[in-house]
Design a protein that fits this description.
The chain is α/β, with parallel strands linked by helices. The chain has one domain: CNF1/YfiH-like putative cysteine hydrolases. It contains six helices and 15 strands. It has helices at 20-30, 99-104, 106-116, 139-149, 166-173, 196-199; strands at 2-7, 35-36, 38-39, 46-49, 58-59, 62-65, 71-76, 80-86, 91-97, 123-126, 154-156, 162-164, 179-181, 205-211, 216-220. The strands form four sheets. It has a six-stranded mixed β-sheet. The two termini are 23 Å apart.
Length: 221
């Protein structure tokens, strides 16, 4: 089984450029084990973790593991943290998904990497992120995303301009696999979440997962 946590701003800033001592303290407060955290670049590189803490600080946008006790972490302030799990094969994945990573195929690459570890029945949960109602998006880029993932990614903001529905894109990229929506909008819930796009916030949340004794989803405050 696996356990996942999505932090809120109350627990503190998980930006990877922060003070290493403070970061370690916050991480251990969520999962008391070595974390594989990534220097995310909006790409599609996936690292495979074979021991707890391996690849910490790697330049990548997703990680997978079949090792109990290995914590995989994604850091976001508008993009979507996607946590993936195969209960039967006991394989865990974590992906950072913004529009560039979505187009670059980060989710498909993550699923392929999990399959190489034996995963066959993958389900996913999308964590808090900027919602379409708050995510005004350029027409040309929206056409590009829709050309790959279908017109369901087209939406409108609350003020009536073109928007991108990242969750719809994630569901299309995962090709019919189960995708749960944890909820939460980083843009319109300023007391709970940071948003780089809506407010220029520098803080980051963490989405982290570990193979362990049970399956559950937590919002850590």
């Amino acid at each position: 089984m696996a356990r996942f946590a999505f932090t809120t701003r109350e627990i503190g800033d998980f930006h990877v450029g922060g003070d290493p001592v403070d970061l370690e303290h916050r991480r251990r407060g969520v999962f008391d084990a070595p974390w594989t955290w990534l220097r995310q670049v909006h790409g599609a590189r996936v690292v495979t973790v074979t021991e707890p803490g391996e690849h910490a600080g790697a330049e990548a946008d997703a990680a997978v593991t079949a090792v109990p006790g290995a914590v995989l972490a994604i850091h976001t302030a508008d993009c979507v943290p996607v946590m993936l799990h195969d209960r039967r094969a006991e394989v865990l994945g974590a992906a950072h998904v913004g529009w560039r990573g979505l187009l670059g195929g980060v989710l498909e690459a993550t699923v392929d990497a999990m399959a190489r570890l034996g995963a066959t029945d993958i389900r996913a949960t999308a964590g808090p992120h900027i919602r379409a109602r708050c995510y005004e998006f350029g027409a040309a880029e929206l056409d590009e995303v829709a050309a790959r993932y279908g017109d369901d990614v087209r939406a409108q903001t609350a003020w009536g301009t073109p928007a991108l529905d990242l969750l719809a894109g994630i569901r299309a990229a995962l090709g019919g696999r189960s995708v749960d929506d944890f909820g939460g909008c980083t843009a319109c819930e300023p007391g709970r979440y940071w948003s780089h796009r809506a407010r220029g916030d520098a803080g980051r949340h963490a989405a982290a997962g570990e193979l362990g004794a049970f399956l559950g989803w937590e919002d850590v405050a």
